């Protein structure tokens, strides 16, 4: 197996932008309360006629253009999401039809907010087994469709969006529009603790035996035990970052930029403090998007590139945590 590279990147956020002030008309909250506790100032919401697969398709087509690869050349379509259009068929199958990747293997990954990192690990395994594969990996979420707007502790946190990458074996290749250079995927580490699954759930599956005409219950929507999630998130993010660095003979001094999952500014700051990482090395964009779950990390890569926070030669550390309870980290070299 030769070096695995991210050859193209594409992002999409819905046009509809919901500020904290906008939320005051539908939930008992205010801008100061939200910003002080989360760092979030706005989030984006899908239009009524838009689904997660539509957002994924827009991001995917941009990534394919960036990579200089036609949809028909893609061999695998992976969709990281915990808010799929349907339980069946997969969002990846719907996506492949929308972009024209007919005949490509297509399936979803659900590791919640860690989905993109899990997707990188899955792509790495597929490329080891099939070195000529061309893989489209998309993180896409429609989380505003699964929020209880009567619960001000959770409905303020999440937004919708999608981002996609194309991964192949081989050389870095041609120049790109959205990446300063093709990014080599140096390593990925993933973990989970299923004993903690009840800390963060989104209903709609078969654990509840709904019958035609039954009203949905609160567990149909996102439910989260915030304090426990915070403690586990800080511990798991810090530990997996230290693990992947040690495994690769690196220290935080070797890292040019850290892109953590954008869930809550307090979590990001606590992880930075625990790792003793300078604030100017930590990328934050959750003030604009909120928590976009599996789309969070690739949206961060896109914004960091657009802001010239990632340059040729940059070494970037990614890390995420999510429901399950899941966690993961990845190392990119541009």
TrEMBL record:
User: What is the uppermost EC class here?
Assistant: transferase
Source superkingdom: Bacteria
Which UniProt keywords are listed?
Acyltransferase, Cytoplasm, Fatty acid biosynthesis, Fatty acid metabolism, Lipid biosynthesis, Lipid metabolism, Multifunctional enzyme, Transferase
Task: Report the GO terms under cellular component.
Answer: cytoplasm
Q: What Gene3D superfamilies is this protein classified in? A: 3.40.47.10
- One MF term in GO for this entry? 3-oxoacyl-[acyl-carrier-protein] synthase activity
- Any one Pfam family here would be ACP_syn_III_C
- ACP-binding: where is this region? 262-266
Question: Which residues are the active-site ones?
Answer: 113, 261, 291
Tell me if S-adenosyl-L-methionine is a UniProt keyword of this record: no
Listed GO biological process terms: fatty acid biosynthetic process; secondary metabolite biosynthetic process
- SUPFAM superfamilies found in the cross-reference section: Thiolase-like
**Quaternary structure?**
Homodimer.
NCBIfam families, from UniProt? fabH, PRK09352.1
Among HAMAP family, the record links this protein to: FabH
Q: Which family does it belong to?
A: Belongs to the thiolase-like superfamily. FabH family.
- What does the comment on domains in this protein's record state? The last Arg residue of the ACP-binding site is essential for the weak association between ACP/AcpP and FabH.
Protein name per its UniProtKB record? Beta-ketoacyl-[acyl-carrier-protein] synthase III
């Amino acid at each position: 197996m030769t070096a695995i590279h991210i050859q193209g990147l594409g992002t999409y956020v819905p046009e509809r932008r919901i500020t904290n002030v906008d939320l005051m008309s539908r939930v008992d909250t205010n801008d100061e309360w939200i910003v002080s506790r989360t760092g979030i100032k706005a989030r984006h919401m899908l239009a009524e006629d838009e689904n997660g697969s539509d957002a994924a398709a827009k991001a995917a087509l941009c990534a394919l253009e960036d990579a200089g690869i036609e949809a028909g050349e893609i061999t695998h379509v992976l969709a990281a999401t915990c808010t799929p259009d349907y339980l069946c068929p997969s969002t990846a199958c719907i996506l492949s039809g929308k972009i024209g990747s007919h005949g490509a293997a297509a399936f979803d990954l659900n590791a919640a907010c860690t989905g993109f990192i899990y997707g990188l690990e899955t792509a790495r395994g597929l490329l080891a087994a099939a070195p000529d594969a061309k893989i489209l990996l998309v993180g896409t979420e429609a989380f505003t469709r699964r929020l209880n707007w009567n619960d001000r502790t959770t409905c303020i946190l999440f937004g919708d969006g999608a981002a996609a990458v194309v991964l192949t074996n081989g050389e870095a290749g041609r120049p790109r529009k959205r990446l300063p250079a093709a990014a080599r995927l140096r390593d990925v580490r993933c973990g989970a603790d299923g004993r903690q699954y009840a800390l963060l759930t989104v209903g709609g599956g078969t654990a509840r035996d709904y019958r035609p005409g039954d009203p949905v219950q609160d567990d149909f929507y996102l439910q989260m035990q915030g304090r426990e999630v915070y403690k586990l998130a800080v511990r798991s993010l810090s530990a997996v970052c230290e693990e992947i660095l040690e495994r690769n003979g690196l220290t935080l001094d070797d890292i040019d930029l850290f892109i953590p999952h954008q869930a809550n500014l307090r979590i990001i700051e606590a992880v930075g403090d625990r790792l003793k990482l300078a604030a100017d090395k930590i990328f934050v964009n959750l003030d604009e998007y909120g928590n976009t779950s599996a789309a969070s990390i690739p949206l961060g890569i896109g914004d960091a590139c657009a802001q010239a926070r990632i340059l040729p030669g940059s070494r970037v550390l990614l890390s995420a945590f999510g429901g399950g309870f899941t966690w993961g980290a990845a190392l990119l070299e541009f």
